[in-house]
UniProtKB/TrEMBL annotation:
Belongs to the eukaryotic/archaeal RNase P protein component 1 family. This is Uncharacterized protein. PANTHER family: RIBONUCLEASE P PROTEIN SUBUNIT P29, RIBONUCLEASE P SUBUNIT P29. Its main location: nucleus. It is found in: Nucleus. Gene3D superfamilies: Ribonuclease P/MRP, subunit p29 (2.30.30.210). It comes from Helicostylum pulchrum. It comes from the Eukaryota.
Amino acid sequence: MDKGESLYQPLPGSTSVKLGPKAVKDFVNEFIRPTSDVSKVMDQMRPVYVDRSNTFIKEEDKKEIKKKIKNKKDGKLTAREKRRLKLYDIPKDAHQYRLFEPLAELWQGYMDKLLLQGTANFEQKLIKADFHGARFTVIQSTNPSYVGSSGIVVQETLSVFKIITRDNKLKRKNLNEYH
């Protein structure tokens, strides 16, 4: 390449001046075999859209991408993303009973308020109550190794309680194994 030669070359034909479907048809006509029909080629072409990151997207994928963008706009993570980011895991350095004692005191106040509301329908209130911070002792279980273990509930899900014991051990108790 000579020093005076331009690095940028114009597109073949004078398509930069033309606009509209006829210009596209003329442009395509310059690149296909002379034996091919331009109208057939144009009919077989699919529209392509450009998303925000300037990558090419086929028309079929447009709906899926709109859905993903909408979810990202909400700022909400899916359950799978939360597990992958380990948001539900309690770090090892936080496996200390003393760190959760204030939570247990707060839970005691929460239960006192529930009792002050009256004992009518208390069983229903207890079933729906939040148990984070509750002091638990397992008195009956299908797994005999669970019986007698006690501690503060640090995490509660539909089927699992995670309990921190006085000796700073995090134990996972499956609710399906209790009577």
